[in-house]
Write the structure tokens for this entry.
Amino acid sequence: MNKSAVLKKMSLVDKLPLYFLRFFIYLILIIFSGIIIFLFYTLFVNASRPHIDISKGFSILPGKFFGRNFMKIITQENLFVLEGIINSLFIGLVSATLTTYFSALTAYAIHLYQFKGRRFIHLAILAVMMIPSQIAGIGLVTILYSIGFVNNYWVIIIPAIASPATFFYMKQYIQSVLPYEIIEAARVDGSSEFRTFNQLVLPIIRPALSVQFIFAFVASWNNLFIPSLIIQDGKKRTLPIIIAQLGVSDPKNFDQGARFMLMFLAIIPTVIIYLIFSKYIIKGTTAGSVKG
Amino acid sequence: MSKKRKKINYNKWGYYFVAPFVLVYVIFSLIPLLSTFYYSFFEYYYAQGGFVQVGPNFIGFGNYVKLFSQGLFMKYLGNTIILWLISFIPQIIISLLMALWFTSFRLKLKGTTFFKTIMYMPNLVMAAAFSMLFVQLFSNTGGLTTLLMDMGIIPETFSFVDKVWPTRFLIAAMNFLMWFGNTTILLMAGIMGIDDTLIESASVDGANSRQTFTKITLPLLKPILLFVLVTSLVGGVQLYDIPYVFTKGTGGPNGSSQTVMMYISGLLRTSKQYDMAGTASVILFLFTTVISIFFFLVMNRDEIDDYKEERRIKKEMKK
């Protein structure tokens, strides 16, 4: 008697048998994952095949041209791929270090010290978090152009010191893990405030630092818009700029295997980093949005 | 002795520690942003192939009038919004469904970690390279185009890159693939943050899945949906890498996939019209700010009404 009353209220989703629903859902999940796996696998396979084979169509098995395609793209004249990789690595590592260090330092200061203007600075940083960084960057580029200051890495790297989103994450993390007693104990032991931060606080917040370092590095490695406006000199270009410039040129005039190899070199480092740290990266994604 | 030590004022260290962050932000973001606002009221460009500097001369709202009367900006803003919409609408639907499936106790799906890991992956990939991959696959001689033609799925005359909507669709598809995993994970965090007992007691009271979803899950997901919406929109109006590489910098057939950022970058780099580039970015800035605030107000309508009601009652009590 009671059961039939419940049955009447069931919606369409509830009425479908569970195995049918599961089958349907798995099918959708497999299609989406399949598309993504197909894209990355094609990238890998074609990076190892010669030009003629690629233009014939797809292949399931990788070819034997991996090394040759690699040498071809690295030694390609006027493209400076090797320089591009080194430039991207340099900018990425330095910016990521600056971003994580100074965001942590700022978050620590806002958390610990009761100085005048603390609340204002905290609110101001949270408010500017929504300002689109590229739009602010356009102003910077215009200023640099009018004073003729281009082709310099440091105007890309230095702004990384102030990253409101990283600050926000660090602030949340420090709030939840850092006991005040430790800092007091360090003070009693005569440690300077700066030393306390570097030698005591940094190791405690290492998990947060590593996640944000990865995010910052990946963001810098993939960044195209502002660097492409600032850097124009051939040998100083970063990997995304090289890709964009090659992408703009006509594909018919360029070896397909070498093109795939270039994409492979641009994409694979982040994929490897991701597959190793995916657990922490996925956790880090959500931490920034769930405001405490 | 111990009393004396306690009196040491450590708070000055707060200033030293926040100084680098604040200084860098002011110099590299705030001042450039304000100068963009300021110079949008000036005539300032290079003429005759970039050799003759014109301005800066104050012309009031001249740049704004010029930008809108030319019509190009509005066209590109329209393109940008279309590209965002056709990528965001499917994205929010699919992500919401997947988030519900992954968190459902009833379904008990297996291998969710695997699916999540794969689906999040494109988010970390270089957009320019990802777009170049699509060019390789979908150009007129590309691997997938020829494969689909051989299979008879698309006619021999079809082109993904020479027609307006296939180009827009593919750009949106790339954007979708890069972001739906990220959105799924954000929504999952939101759903898992909902108190289980709420849903349990609802089902004890006889609510079905649809009712639990519309009456409990969705309202409680509002903050996170707002977050997803606003960040996606702010990212969406800045869309540059994917359409730039996919259309080879041309903006696609008849400039139908030319975005505002592509337009601004062309003004800065090629034609050196700094005044117009600045004005366009000011409008883009205002546009994102207004929409962020608008969505905030819409999503929190109930809370705002409550607040107004409360104030009205307080006022009447005073009388």
